Amino acid sequence: MSNGDLIHIVSYQEITERRRRLGHLIIRGSFAVLLLVLGAQVLQAVGVWGFGFKNWQLTGVAWVAWCVCLCVGQVLIRGEQGKRILFVLPAALFVVSLTVIPLLLGIGIAFTDWNLSSFEGPKFAGLGNIERMLQDSFYWNALRNMVFYTAGVLVEYAIAFGLALLLSAQIRARRFFRVAFLLPLMLSPVAVGWMIGKSMLEFRFGPISNLARLLGWQEPAFFAASPDIARVSMELLDAWIFIPFIMIMLLAGLQALPTEVIEAARVDGASAWQTFRKVIFPLMLPVSLTAIIVRIIFKLKLADIVITITAGGPGGATDTVTSFIFREYKDRSNVGYGTLLALFYLIVIVIGLTGLIRGLSRWMRPYS
Amino acid sequence: MTQAIFRDSDVDLRFKAKWWSSRALIYGLLILWTIVALFPIFWVITTSFKTAPDVMQGKIIPFLDYQPAWLGWRSLGLSPDTIGFGSTVRDQFLTRFSNSLVISLSASALATMLGSTTGYGLSRFGYKFGYMKNADISFFFISQLILPPVVLALPFLVFYRELALIDTHIGLILIYTLTVLPIVIWIMRDQFMSIPSELEEAAMVDGEGVWGAFFRIILPIALPGMIAAFVLSLVLTWNEYVFAVLLTAINTITLPVLVASQTGSNGINWWGMAAVSFAAILPLIIVAVLLERFIVRGMSAGAVK
Question: Where are the domains of chain B?
Answer without folding.
Answer: 10-75, 88-300
